[in-house]
Design goal:
With 402 residues, the chain is of the alpha/beta class. It starts with a helix and ends with a helix. This is AAA family ATPase.
Length: 402
């Protein structure tokens, strides 16, 4: 239980701190956050991607009258579900109907309270750590009364805007090395990414799901971050890590994906069953995190480059596959049930790899009946045509700035 006077003082202090903060680079996600009252707006994403900062920016720019409360404040450790009535009294006194809640999901029965505020016509915006509650669970708890928007670390455009650079090959290489986690972009301290990697494994997965074999979870995550762009199956990983059950491995992979630490894309097939049984390709949440945590002794720029392009696509599209029949195409982007884009990623086109890269794209273009495909390279610009189909090679700085 907490006194109403204490709660009011905490809220006043928190909002004052927000207004005094230097909120840094304006996040581009602000432009796509919907203005709604019938549903709660939930901002989800990997830990330390800037969700709280986005909330602060939204508050300062659009809703200065909003009531703001971060439930992770140490002064609120005694907050209990019954204290929502005290929060109600403060809201009534403030005469605002815009409510910003950081980490409200750590309080029992929070979803009942949020639904109540929505029914009263309030605008509710929530951000939440995956350690407390995953975005998928947020939707379940609110029984459909929500819209979720994902926030990722800095995009290439945000990265170069922060550095005050122009798009260039050199900027791409810097972004490939640094990645987009705001705190690391600002500090350059690799410990930030080491600690973040461990925090997600321990706090967001091991503690939350009661994983007892933490060492195997850590070894699995290290293997995945060291092998981005490669194919994996549950059975192969089961044997590699000598785990008794494939279902245990699949649970671990599911946890890693739900926390946004890794993405696993399936091979395209019109058969859902075949998608499930075929190998999936691994991509990590951030290229800086790969560089900081990978156990690989080689600098495999090609696979990290591919990971960077995947993350650019993933910001705008959720349905992404790889295509593999006689040849392979790295990415098939679907939207509204149809193939929208076909992309091959090649760090540098050479006489040795040109046919392989083009054949994979042309085969995919035939399969999906598309007339154009793209090869993203580090610096090359080319155009190839075959049987009325066109492949354009574009430099990454141009593709990432689109």
């Amino acid at each position: 239980m907490i006194l109403q006077s204490v709660l009011a003082n905490v809220m006043e202090a928190q909002k004052s701190n927000v207004h005094d903060l230097d909120l840094g680079l304006r996040r581009s996600a602000l432009a796509i956050l919907p203005d709604i009252t019938s549903h709660a707006l939930i901002v989800s994403g990997i830990r330390r991607s800037g969700k709280s900062t986005l909330l602060y920016q939204l508050l300062k720019e659009k809703y200065p009258e909003a009531l703001y409360l971060n439930f992770e404040d140490t002064r609120l450790y005694n907050f209990e579900p019954n204290d929502f009535s005290r929060l109600d009294a403060i809201i009534k006194e403030s005469k605002t109907n815009v409510l910003f809640f950081d980490e409200i999901q750590i309080i029992d029965r929070w979803e009942t309270y949020v639904r109540q505020k929505l029914d009263e016509g309030c605008k509710v915006v929530i951000t939440g750590s995956n350690a407390s509650l995953l975005s998928r669970e947020l939707g379940t708890k609110l029984t459909g009364r929500h819209i979720t928007k994902e926030l990722f670390p800095f995009s290439f455009t945000e990265f170069i805007n922060y550095r005050k650079w122009q798009p260039s090959e050199e900027a791409v290489m810097a972004y490939l090395h640094t990645g987009g986690f705001p705190e690391y972009v600002k500090s350059g301290l690799e410990e930030v990414l080491h600690h973040l990697f461990e925090d997600i494994l321990i706090r967001d997965i091991a503690v939350r799901y009661g994983v007892r074999d933490v060492k195997t979870l850590q070894r699995l995550a290290l293997y995945l971050v060291s092998n981005v762009g490669k194919l994996v199956t549950g059975n192969r990983l089961k044997g590699l890590f000598e785990i008794g059950s494939t279902s245990t491995i699949m649970d671990y992979l599911s946890h890693l994906e739900y926390t946004y630490l890794f993405h696993f894309i399936p091979k395209f097939s019109y058969s859902t069953r075949k998608q499930l049984v075929n190998p999936r390709k691994i991509y990590a949440a951030d290229t800086g995190m790969i560089n900081a945590n990978s156990g690989s002794f080689t600098d495999d720029f090609g696979r990290k480059f591919e990971n960077m392009i995947f993350l650019h696509l993933r910001r705008d599209f959720k349905e992404i596959y790889y295509f593999s029949e006689k040849n392979e195409c790295d990415f098939v982007v679907f939207q509204k049930g149809a193939a929208k884009k076909l992309l091959q990623v090649c760090y540098e086109l050479t006489p040795d790899n040109l046919d392989r890269e083009m054949n994979g794209l042309f085969e995919a273009m035939d399969f999906f009946k598309l007339s154009e495909g793209t090869i993203v390279t580090l610096h090359q610009t080319e155009e190839f045509e075959r049987d009325g189909k066109v492949i354009k090679a574009v430099p990454a700085f141009q593709f990432l700035a689109e």
